[in-house]
Amino acid sequence: MQKHHSKRKPHSRFRNWNPKIGASASETVHGTIRSLDGGEDFALSYLRDSFLTKFCDERLVSAADRRANAIRKLLEVERKNKEFNLLIPSRDPGYNIMPRVSYGSFLRFTRRMARDILGPLHDGVVIGSFTGGASTSRRRTESLPAHKFIGKADITGTAWPYIDVLHREVPWFKQYGLFSSFNEVKGNVLFTVPKKSDIDRCACKEPDINMFLQKGVGNHIRRRLKRFGINLNDQSRNRSLAKLGSVDSSLATIDLSSASDSLTVETVRAILPQEWFLYLDDIRSHYMLIDGEEHHNEMFSSMGNGFTFELESLIFFVLARAVSYFEGISGIISVYGDDIIVPSGAYDMTEWVLREFGFTVNPSKSFSTGFFRESCGGHYHTGEDVTPFYLKKAATHLTDVIRVANQLRLWSMTGPFRRYQFNTYQTWKALADMVPECFWGGYDYSLDTRLVTPPAPRRSYRLVRMSEEQKAPQLGLYAHWHNSNWNRLSDPEGSEDPVSTNQKCRRKWANPGDPVCQDWFLEELVHHAVSPG
Description:
The chain contains 16 helices and 18 strands. The chain is of the alpha+beta class. The chain has two domains: 23-51 and 395-467 and 502-527, no CATH class; 63-385, no CATH class.
C-alpha cells in the first residue's frame, strides 16, 4: 500500500516571545530619557546628556567609517609611540623629570618597585589559561576555551622556546597530545568593536599559544599586585575612593586616552627588570595585521593581549607611587587599568610624568578640583552616585525595552530623592507599558528578560534565550577543566564575554521563590497603600 505524506507545514518548536518593536516604539525608547527635564538636578541633567553618547547607528556614522576612524587613531598613536621609543632610551639620566629629581633617580625607584611587585621570574609563570575570545586561528563561533586545547594552534617565532617549558611544567599537555601541532604566524590580527557614535575601539586577536602564555603573566601580576593593595578583580575600591574625592576633594581621578596603545616598548624596557622584559617581549606580538597589511608594533601590547591590562596597571601604579614619593605627598594611590587615583596635590605632577612616558591624560574624564569624580564606571557628585546608563545600539526588540526600563529604575533608586520625582516615574511607566504584564514582577536589574516591578498580581513569566551554545570536544573540555584546577594560584576572573545576544526567547514560568522587588517609586507606594517605612 502506498503511503500518503502530509503536506502540512512543520510545526515550529518554539514561539519567539521577544518580538521586534516598531519604529515608533524604538524612537520612544531613544527619546524618553533625553526628554527628561533636568532642571537644577545634577544627576538627572547628567543622565540626559550622557544617555546617547555611546550610541552607534548606521544612520549617524557607518560601521565602515567608525572602523576607519579607529584605525586612523591607532596609527596616529603609533607614530607618537615611535618618537618615544627613540626618546626614552636616549634621555640624559641627569635630566630633571621632576623638580630636583633626575631621570636616573626616578627610574631607579620605579625599577626597584616593579622588581618588588613582580618577584623572581620562574617557569611556573608559563601556566596560563584561555578565555572565550577569538584567536588568530579560532573564530568567535568556535572560541570556547575547550576548542583551543586541541587541533593546530598558532604561535609566533619568538614564543617557540617556551613550548618545552610548557610541557615540563604541565606534563599532561604532552601526555594527551595537546599543543602538539603548531602554525607559526607573524603576530596578531586587528579587529574593532563599537565604542562611541563616531569611532570604534581597536583590539587584536592573539596567536593561541602566545595568548595562553600571556594569561600566565597576567595572572601572576594580579596575584602580586594584591600584596600592594591593588585588587584587579574588584573595581569597588576605586569607586569608593572616587566617591570620597567628590566629597572632600582629597583625591583626584585620572583617565588616559588610548592608554594600552600608548604603552611603548621602551617604557616597558625602562621600568621592568630585564629578565621580565625579555620574557614578555618574547611572548607578545611584534607585528599586527591590519586589513591584510603588516604593521610593526611600536606599542608593547594591545587590547586582546592576555597581560596588557595587568601590565599597564603595574606601570601606572609605580609611576604614581614614584611621583608621590619624590613630591613628599602622602595619601592613597589606587589603579585599575588606566583608572588612576592619586592625592589631589599630586595630580599635576603625575600628569606631567605620565606625559614624559608618552601617555595622554583625558581632560574630559579626569578631575582634581570641584566636586565631581569618575573612576571604574562610577560617577559621583558631592558624594551622590550619579552614574548614568547608556543606549549603545538601536532598540529593536522587547528585551531592549526591558533593559532600558530596568536601568532607569535602578538609577532612580540609587539617589536618595529620585524615586520621589514624578517625571522620572512617568518616564519609567511609559517604557513599562510597552512590556506585556506577564513579564512584570522581576527583581534583578541586570537582566533584560523580566521587568523589575513591585510584586506581580499573579504568577508571571520570564524570557529565556534559546541556546546557541557551541559543541565543545570532550578532550578539550577535559583539558580546560584540568587546566583550571591545575593552576590553583590563579585568581578567579569574571567572564569577559557578554551575555548571549540571541534575540529569540522562550517564555517560562518565573520561579515563585524568587526575591521580591524592594525598591518602589512613590506613586507605587501610594497605589499599593504601603508606607515608605
